[in-house]
């Protein structure tokens, strides 16, 4: 079965597209109940996201810092997976290196 070209995208292309925006996040796929995107927070930037109505999974591509979930702070670093339940207040805090994070909603 031949796949449509829109079903494939490289991480380099996603980062280049993110660089071309004024936002700190970019939605990559939004189809059939699955959302995937990328966010980058640089030192000194504030994560302004609000709670979501669905569960969310993050994958830290690079960098370090912390994530605060419902007032509890946990360190994060490259290659960490993070689960955030629906409606939970959460935000990333940048450490000594910019954070680049992929997010998944389902």
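^ structure tokens above, recovered residues below v
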């Amino acid at each position: 079965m031949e796949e449509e070209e829109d079903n494939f995208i490289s991480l380099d292309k996603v980062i280049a597209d993110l660089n071309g925006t004024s936002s700190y996040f970019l939605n990559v796929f939004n189809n059939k109940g699955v959302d995937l995107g990328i966010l980058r927070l640089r030192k000194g930037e504030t994560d302004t996201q609000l709670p979501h109505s669905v569960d969310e999974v993050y994958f830290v591509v690079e960098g370090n810092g912390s994530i605060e979930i419902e007032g509890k702070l946990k360190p994060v670093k490259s290659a960490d997976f993070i689960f955030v339940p629906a409606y939970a207040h959460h935000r990333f805090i940048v450490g000594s290196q910019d954070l680049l994070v992929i997010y998944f909603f389902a």
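Residues 56 and 105 are 5 Å apart (CA to CA).
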